[in-house]
Amino acid sequence: MDQIVQQIKELESVNSLSKHEQIVQGILNAINEKHVSKGDMLPSVNKMIQELGFARETIVKAYKELVHSGIIESKNRLGYFVATEDTQQELKVALVIFAFDIFQETFYENFRNGLGDSIQLDIFFHHNNFETFDTIVNNIRGKYGMYVIAPIPHKSTPELLRQLPVNRVLLVDRFVKTKEDYSYVVQEFRESSYQAFCKLKDKIQKFDQVVFFFKSNSAEPNEILESFNQFVKDHHINSVIRDNYKPGSLEKGKVYFTIHNLELWEMLKDTKAKGFVLGKDVGFISHNDDIVKEIIFDGVTTFSTDFSKMGTRAAEFVKSGEKIKVVVPTVLIERNSL
């Protein structure tokens, strides 16, 4: 620790450096000259105040900058530790998401563009498999300056996330309740889905039945299922829930709601094959909007969050490191399919 303080003091004569820059560069110099190694503890903030006479805010700012770059890490109640001896590294970001569907690609493109060229981004897919998720988190911990994660709603997820520094984690897409105060940019499913169904009530009631395709124990949000069940109960709507769509089974007089694009494409294919009039003979509602749903068959009705905005806000968090808690609104887009 004394060597770190000495390295910082040697920079006091460099007029071009502010006090917080002296601390940052001094720590980097101590690492480069092998005075400290990966895993070594740095002086506490109080120790630095005592030795340097700098303001607490100055020292905290310097430590936060080094944490943000991934050079050091903060361990809750233990202090600051050297995370890597590679002081020349760019900020490295780990992005952990479900898969690379169209809407997640939209998120990724806006996130990547928002980060700029100077930030390294590595992407991992857990496919809603908790064992895969667990393996990814254990493999990436301590290796990145920021962790942007779409968490799996699982009882063990909060404990798994605790392996990562709270102030370097951003939850995206899904929100999970934890004891830790994580930043997040997510969508809300229960209330927004219910409100979307209610706005479509008059159109839905023109049909004999609404069919919802929902796979249990999948990546599909259970909150949407709960909202659907509440909606049909509140408004006395004839409904049925099925695991999946069987090609060729499309029937007149029904509204079909699916979260999966492949099922939607199969139903649209059958609509054409059977000569049905979309919005009159059958109706479709889809979750998560994209440009194809705007164009195909003169448009498919959707309710969806803005994944481009989610990606942009996530990039802002990575670059600033400032706490963020955002629920991106869900928007109903009514088109000719209903």
From TrEMBL:
InterPro entries (alphabetical): Peripla_BP_I (IPR028082), Tscrpt_reg_HTH_GntR (IPR000524), WH-like_DNA-bd_sf (IPR036388), WH_DNA-bd_sf (IPR036390)
Keyword tRNA-binding part of the UniProt annotation: no
Highest taxon above the source species: Bacteria
Transcription is among the record's keywords: yes
SMART domains found in the cross-reference section: HTH_GNTR (SM00345)
Keywords: DNA-binding, Transcription, Transcription regulation
Domain named HTH gntR-type: residues: 17-85
Protein name: GntR family transcriptional regulator
Organism: Galbibacter pacificus
